[in-house]
Specification:
Low-confidence stretches: 11-42
Number of strands: 18
Radius of gyration: 28 Å
Mean pLDDT: 82
Largest sheet: 7 strands, mixed
Order of helices and strands: HHHEEEEEEHHEEEHEHHEEEEEEEE
Distance between the termini: 100 Å
Shape: globular
Strand content: 25-35%
Structural class: alpha+beta
Length: 336
């Protein structure tokens, strides 16, 4: 019995000895997640790399209209996107019950438009050593998350502005609402939706893939008028209000571009000029999006002995572009 006890003790000591010499590794993805939860990583270059990767890999458009836009990250090089553009009328003919051979063959000439991605820069944020000492949560990690969220909001808003029509034309209709007056503006009504559908039908825009990014104001108009829209509003799926509302997939946004009160021309992004509220319509084949690089700029508190504070900020390259006019439209507030 004593011998058995001695053997067990020796085995236990061996296990402890082996465990003390084993080094457990954690993959970079896990380290990135841990950093946002407050676990410190000393290597500054590695910390930058992990946080930059966190911004890119966790940069989500799920639940917003942006998820409907085709991603073309593979078109990006040096933070510019090469957009192929068909040259002339080179679409192939479709033959029915062909009996003539050999089949006619022809090439297709394409052009390329090179567009620089937009650079979105956060303002720097700092955290002092005294703050970290006094609080019971990871403020540095929370600031990192806040910057990612603000980047996502600004990028989504600017993307919608970028693909919206500048003004009305034969290929990009900008129509006005015709409902009852609500102050100085007219409400959006079901008949306006049908009218816009008809405009797209006449322009031969494919029925599958039409997306309507509706302002909250216009969504509220339809909630008052149409019970079918209200039902779709209460049964949203992945952010979409209605899977099919007169052929449109509907998303609601607080921000939509504004149009000049008299000329009905789109106002500049972040313009302070009062204008008409809009809802934006696009076809999925009309637009593309792409991510470029992200760079983290940081200074550790140990490099600032005078103020003892850490500073961080980000640059993100992203673009959302319309590659053709067909399928782009807007519905703006009508006036009295």
């Amino acid at each position: 019995m004593k011998k058995l006890g001695l053997v067990l003790v020796m085995l236990l000591l061996s296990v402890v000895s082996i465990a003390g010499n084993v080094k457990f590794s954690v993959d970079k993805e896990t380290k990135a997640e841990l950093r946002t939860c407050g676990v410190s990583i000393v290597d500054g270059d590695l910390l930058n790399e992990l946080n930059e990767k966190f911004i890119l890999t966790k940069f989500r458009s799920l639940g917003t209209w942006l998820q409907e836009v085709t991603s073309k990250d593979n078109w990006v090089g040096n933070n510019a996107i090469k957009i192929p553009k068909r040259k002339g009328d080179s679409a192939p003919l479709v033959l029915i019950n062909n009996t003539t051979y050999p089949m006619v063959s022809s090439g297709r000439d394409d052009e390329q438009v090179v567009v620089s991605l937009n650079k979105y820069s956060t303002e720097n944020k700092h955290v002092t050593q005294d703050e970290l000492y006094a609080i019971a949560y990871d403020k540095e990690g929370d600031i990192n998350l806040e910057m990612k969220e603000e980047l996502e909001i600004k990028v989504t808003e600017h993307a919608l502005h970028s693909i919206s029509p500048v003004s009305t034309s034969s290929s990009t209709p900008v129509l006005e609402t015709t409902g009852a007056l609500d102050g100085a503006r007219r409400r959006l009504v079901k008949a306006d939706v049908i009218r816009l559908k008809n405009a797209l039908d006449k322009a031969s825009v494919p029925k599958t893939g039409r997306v309507w990014v509706m302002s909250s104001t216009h969504a509220n108009d339809l909630l008052l008028e149409d019970s079918a829209f209200e039902k779709g509003y209460h049964n949203r799926v992945d952010g979409a209000i209605s899977i099919n509302y007169y052929g449109f997939k509907i998303y609601e946004e607080v921000y939509t571009p504004t149009y000049h009160a008299t000329t009905k021309v789109k106002l500049a992004f972040d313009s302070v000029t009062a204008g008409r509220t809009s809802s934006i319509i696009f076809h999925k084949s009309s637009c593309v999006k792409a991510k470029g690089t992200v760079e983290r700029f940081a200074r550790d508190k140990k490099a600032d002995p005078e103020n003892r504070k850490s500073v961080v900020g980000y640059d993100l390259y992203f673009g959302c572009f319309a590659i053709q006019d067909q399928g782009l439209a807007a519905m703006i507030d009508g006036v009295a």
